[in-house]
């Protein structure tokens, strides 16, 4: 399973692979990919960007727009950063909820073989989750809150819908071989 910082690094490298971005724009786009319930403060973003720059994965671009005396800072991926991003598209474990969503957002540069591998692994994980949820719902609900039971039903429905979607994605990927 990828750590929070690895997932965020992968996200930032993927975004910067598309071109230079300012910190504010990186945060905004990252939140779109990571989801509304994932907190990403500037207090965690900028230290990571600094570490990535020190590691040679990205570089800082300073510019004066002329309208303001303030220097604008943007970030740009380096050749080393692009190589790291490409390596991560092939090696990162993307079966967990957050990692899968992030990796799927950058499926374009991921090899065909690895896309199928990730989709199949995610489907296996969701089938296990759905089986567990079904088993829990079949057990006696004595003492369980009705809303907790409803949440489990909703979780099962969501998992089953995603499994159907994954089946379609896997079929399409195999066809495009």
- Looking at the structure, what is the overall shape? globular
Show unreliable segments.
none
The N- and C-terminal alpha carbons lie at a distance of: 28 Å
The secondary-structure element order is: HEHHEEHHHH
Supply the number of helical segments. Answer: 7
**Quick one: biggest sheet?**
3 strands, antiparallel
- CATH superfamily membership of the largest domain, which one? Winged helix-like DNA-binding domain superfamily/Winged helix DNA-binding domain
Relative strand content: 5-15%
Total strand count, please?
3
Helix content: 55-70%
Radius of gyration: 20 Å
CATH class of the largest domain: Mainly Alpha
Mean pLDDT: 88
Q: What is the spatial order of strands in the main beta sheet?
A: 1-3-2
Instruction: Tell me the structural class.
Output: mainly alpha
Second rung of CATH, namely the architecture of the largest domain: Orthogonal Bundle
CATH topology of the largest domain: Arc Repressor Mutant, subunit A
How many distinct domains?
2
InterPro entries: Metal_resp_DNA-bind_regulator (IPR052509), Tscrpt_reg_PadR_N (IPR005149), WH-like_DNA-bd_sf (IPR036388), WH_DNA-bd_sf (IPR036390)
Pfam family, one: PadR
Protein name: PadR family transcriptional regulator
Domain Transcription regulator PadR N-terminal: 12-86
